[in-house]
Design a protein that fits this description.
Helix 9 (251-263) runs parallel beside helix 13. Helices cover 50% and strands 8% of the residues. By secondary structure, the chain is an alpha+beta fold.
Length: 438
Amino acid sequence: MAGKAKKRERPNLTAKFCESVQPLDQIVEYYDGSSSLVLRVLPNGKKNWSMRYRSPNGKQRRFDFGEFPALTLADARTEFLEAKLLIKRGGDPAEQRREEKVAKAKKIDTLTVAELGARYLQAAEDGCHKAKVRRRKKQSSIDDERYWFDRFILPRLGKYRVDELNRHLIQNDINELIRTQSMSTPRRVAVTLHAMYSYAVWQELVSHNPCVNVSYPSPKSRKTALTDDQLRMVWSALTPPLNIPDIQVGDRMGYALQLAIVTGQRIGEIAQMRVSQINFDDATWLIPEEVTKNSRPHLVPLGPLALELIGKARSLQGEDAGDAIFASPRKHLESVHSKSVSHACRKIRLALGWPNIRPHDFRRTVATNMAKPPIKTLPYIVSKVLNHQSDKGGAASVTSVYNLWEYLDEKREALVAWEKRLRQILIVQAVIEGRKAG
């Protein structure tokens, strides 16, 4: 008696096969081994995971899990087993998904802009506000967004439901800010609101971003570099002890702003300077990647004047000094916020009637003086001093990935030359003040 023919077993799918399989002119289904999990390849190139099953009322149904490669083979198998277990217990995967969508829609109906903002800001702090993103620097970006949200978005738009706020309402609010605030305010508010709704779209809390096509003023590129006379004026005003009429500004703010003039580094990085980052033997300051704008560590040579200013700033803290060189007056173990330094500069500027000079102008001033005679530093070395990642010095982009040499000697030569030039500029002021005293 002849034996029964052996049933041919289907091979299990592999990730490589799922990636390489090409669409045909009709839908083709590929089963994962002996299971009912299917990879459906559509003529348009889409690849969907699905399974067929019988619902509790006996009807034949198909349940779609998601698209490949967004849903990997391993994840599809996991979801397939969960669906099989639900069916075995008398449930219906498709009906359960429908109920979840209805419940989610009801929840979204009551979600306000205020609640969305709180959820987005927390996700941003956790580094999960969008797919494949690194954790952002709290002081440099998240705190800024929180400020614009708390100051303008929450009181003006926070009561609206997320699905109720449309482009027309947002544009009217931005137009009002254009009329009543500085030009940067409507732009920052619009960008923050756009980021919130992009997160909401990603989380499927809304179907679209109403901030798309909202217009606001474009940022104007500043080109301010201080003249020698302005440098003397600013340096003299920032030299402690600070005795400026009608305002109270701590001496540590003066030293921080002077250090920005000497080193050319960003005021946010200077504000967060710590003793543990400085090698006093080698006269270098290593700014860690979590502080720098481009998330790359940056080694800054320190000249005699820079070290002198750092020493004076440390002496202000007394015996209970912590690691922070520019410590917060309220929390001595924490660094002062960069906005506090910028606000101090603004107070001084308004009190003394200066032109619109900002801390970032010091950085541009340093770069300009390094590039022009008598110093004439090569542009690439100026970029290395400033920690500009985009400048590759004429080399291929990939070269910068492997070139880990920090050009320390060249950066030190440029910064020492700038210190020397700065002292020459300031000598004129010292001579003038000496003559007045005499």
